[in-house]
Amino acid sequence: MQWTLPFALEHLRVVRIPMSVRFRGVDIREVALFNGDGLTGWAEWSPFLEYGPAEAATWLAACIRSTVERPELKRDRVPVNATLPAVEPERVQAVLARYGLWRTVKIKVAERGQSLEDDLARVRSVREQHPDARIRIDANGGWDVDQAERALRALAGFDLEYAEQPVATVEQLVQLRRRFDEVPIAADESIRKAADPLRVAQLGAADIIVVKVQPLGGVSRALEIIDETGLPAVVSSALETSVGLAEGVQLAAALDELPYDCGLATGALLNADITHERMLPTWDGSAAVLPSILPTVDEHLVNQLAAPEERQEHWRERLRQAWEHLPADVAG
């Protein structure tokens, strides 16, 4: 179907969900949802508040496409990792306990206002308490090349699965890999925020790519990027509700190969949700997994978590501005 701006405005609902722990600077997650006549269920649009209209439009295109795109699934469950924000070592166990049983954890590092010593203490705490865990770190491009080399040399002793986006640009990733190649590199922002996400593969900047449905414009576009780069992919979340997380699980379930646990268990970082069946991981005997189902939204929860009117209007204005940047194939 083709959406129109009046249709989208009429069916826009905004919720505010408190976080269980501060994550990427967010204490309360604001999410826009759409539902109404002509939609086959609910759809999520949740660009972070600092994103401008052009970037938010890519997320909106993914939202619209999600109402008509259903990939062919190759599996009915998807293995997922725990995600540990940049907390103090003494809080590590309490946060990880929210995920239940897990075998892989992604640890946030290079947090603004923290030091390499803080990162080492956090990773050391996880390794000491979970000696068999698969540990990956995520710097969100927070280091320059010198800092990243120093950090990776210091952290390599903890047997890292990979380091995600240690530096900000593709060119810096190339420099870093030339200097130190003992830890595999995964590209995230260099894929989802890049004008040309294929440059990562073309320049040999990473071993792995991290893909997220909304930032890439939808499941079909993400599948194209994975195919065109030819690199193994880790499907991850953008801190969505269970509606958005289910789209990520659908993407992961559509891949021919899934060598890495996916970053799709971030529902554990939310103190509430809008669905009857929250997308929270269970243990299947070998890994923490999420089912490849589309959860049922509970309208009572949507109403309970509704943002105040001034925030609803803020999102309506965001929608008007983002609409101007939508590709023609998704808007009437």
From TrEMBL:
Stretch forming the signal peptide: none
Annotated NCBIfam families: PRK02901.1
Protein name stated in the entry: o-succinylbenzoate synthase
GO BP: menaquinone biosynthetic process
Top-level EC class: lyase
Active-site residues, as the UniProt record annotates them: 108, 212
Native source organism of the sequence: Candidatus Agrococcus pullicola
Parts of the chain that traverse the membrane: none
Pfam families: Enolase_like_N, MR_MLE_C
